[in-house]
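Data card: per-record layout.
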Amino acid sequence: MVRAETASGASRDNRTELDTVLEFLRSGDELVVHRLDRLGRSTRDVLNLIHELDGKGASLRVLEPEITTAGDMGRMVITVLGMVADMELKFIRDRQRAGIKAARSRGVYKGRQKRVDDAAIRSLVSQGISKAQVARDLGVSRMTVYRALESNHRDTDSLPE
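The structure for this 161-residue chain is written out next.
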């Protein structure tokens, strides 16, 4: 049976196809994935999945590069590849953070533009509307409302007397 899941392998949460496949795997079955990073990016997550497969008597086959956990050597290679994938993800995140920091220092990166003006949020709250209702009405999170209210305090605190 062929099943496909398009969600990222970054987390096992909300991966219903994977859960379904694991539920139906039996002894002697083989879970086939195109690449190991499609199964999981965390070495621990991949190893936990392999352990789960072992408990069911099933194995894992990775097509690119061709590896299987049916033998001891394949399990070792998958462990090493999982560790390399972890390191690669960390390097990508570090480079991204460094790029954002450099762009901010040049004034190029300012983040996403606000969808709702802070003054509009403050106005609604000052009318006695609850913060939760303001958030619902404007289609923003409550944290956005709290930040808008906090920015008002910071703005007024920094005014000269």
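Known properties of this structure: The beta strands are 30-33, 59-62, 67-68. The chain has six helices and three strands.

See the next section for split statistics.
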